[in-house]
Amino acid sequence: MKxxxxxxxxxxxxxxxxxxxxxxAHCPLCTLGAAAAAxxxxxxGVNNLVIGxxxxxxxxxxxxxISNLIKKKFIxxxxxxxxIFSFLTTILPLLPLPVFHEAKGIYLSQxxxxxxxxxxxxxxxxxxxxxxxxxxxxWLSHKITEIRNGKLIPYQGIILTLGLLLITxxxxxxxx
Length: 176
Known about the structure:
Layout: H1 5-18, H2 28-43, H3 48-69, H4 78-91, E1 103-108, E2 116-121, H5 122-147, H6 156-175
Antiparallel strand pairs: 1-2
Helix pairs in contact: 1-2, 2-3, 2-6, 3-4, 3-5, 3-6, 5-6
């Protein structure tokens, strides 16, 4: 494994994360975990849909994390806009890369006399799904805590986040 670019990115992200204070909702561990999973998926040659899942999760988690660092509210919907901005500025620059040009066709028989086929970029669809998983994880964690009468499982947030991403990614890799 000579001069692996993923290794340099992970070392940089880890060093960056050491200097930033802890925030609630999405912590540096969730963000770094999603980034590491994306790098590992790319390294082992998994489907673009799965790589998109982890990179989308990383982008949304990073946006949420940064939005929690900003204590003062400057504009309405500031957190939401920062999460969307983080997602767009992470995902859109990657779309023109030749490695992410894979598309899957979806046939919709109810439209038109002969049906309608839509080609969807698998990386983009995976990214959106990964972002949605990251968005529902705090709600699921809160529900689990309610069911357990206010008791948290140690590292509940990161277990739930990475668990959902790994289960979804494994399922997509095996079925699609």
